Amino acid sequence: MRSILVANPKGGAGKTTFAVNLAAGLASRGAKVALCDLDRQRSALQWLGLRSSSLPGISSVGGDGRGTGGREGSDGWMVVDSPAGLHGKNLAHAVKLAAGVLVPVQPSLFDMAATGEFLSSLMGTLGRKRRSIGIVGMRVDPRTRAAATLEAFLTQFELPVITYLRDTQMYPNAAFAGQSVFDAPEYIAAREIRQWEPVFRWMDDLD
Ligand SMILES: Nc1ncnc2c1ncn2[C@@H]1O[C@H](COP(=O)(O)OP(=O)(O)OP(=O)(O)O)[C@@H](O)[C@H]1O
Ligand SMILES: [Mg+2]
């Protein structure tokens, strides 16, 4: 299984929201998916516990790599949700195991400041593999000044904004039921699902 690490040391950046929707999105596309929760708060696993077995299946893998649910094998994706404040050896270890790292960032002064240092250290760890880092603008409309500010901030790192996910109650509402925007009726979630397309394309292009 190839793994995607979802990381940002800033609390509340949208890591868990992004991770569970990514897992559900991959599952809805027919991929084998496992969710690994490195956060002691276990938010992603809580979400998985609420998920109905009638929805596209996602198994869970512990931080020690041990699985439950029996769907993990050599193919498919493992989506790794990580805690706020992840740094040092633990971060380096998680990054080393990942085929790609996705970093949700909200376009606020405080979020960008906290994320900057992290991006620098991440790029140091990955060196030539920096192509495997992608930014996701979280809770932002791409046509706004906030999005432009985020892009201007990111030019110093030469990292791509893979997509923007807009601020909508659909994310928290779906989470209450162990669901994602991919589990909602298409006529309700079409706009959200379109915003996710570049993420899947980016993953398809990973080495
Ligand atoms: N696109 C979005 N639209 C609306 N609300 C969102 C969106 N993304 C995240 N949220 C909300 O923002 C809050 C923080 O999100 P989340 O818990 O995913 O962040 P986190 O980075 O995992 O936090 P922590 O660092 O505490 O683990 C949650 O209440 C979540 O519902
Ligand atoms: Mg979280």
Describe this protein's structure.
By secondary structure, the chain is an alpha/beta fold. It has a single domain (2-204), classed as P-loop containing nucleotide triphosphate hydrolases (Rossmann fold). The chain has helices spanning 15-28, 43-50, 88-97, 109-126, 145-154, 170-176, 186-204, and strands at residues 2-6, 33-37, 59-61, 67-68, 77-81, 100-105, 133-138, 161-165. Strands 4-3-2-5-1-6-7-8 form an eight-stranded mixed sheet, sandwiched between helices. Helix 1 (15-28) packs parallel to helix 2 (43-50). The longest helix is centred in the C-terminal third of the chain and has 19 residues, at 186-204. The two termini are 13 Å apart. The model has no long low-confidence stretch (mean pLDDT 92). The protein binds adenosine-5'-triphosphate and magnesium ion. The site of magnesium ion has 4 residues, from helix 1.
Structural class: alpha/beta
Can you give the helix content as a percent range? 40-55%
| Poorly predicted ranges | none
Query: What integer value in Å does the Rg equal?
Result: 16 Å
User: Which architecture does the CATH hierarchy give at level 2?
Assistant: 3-Layer(aba) Sandwich
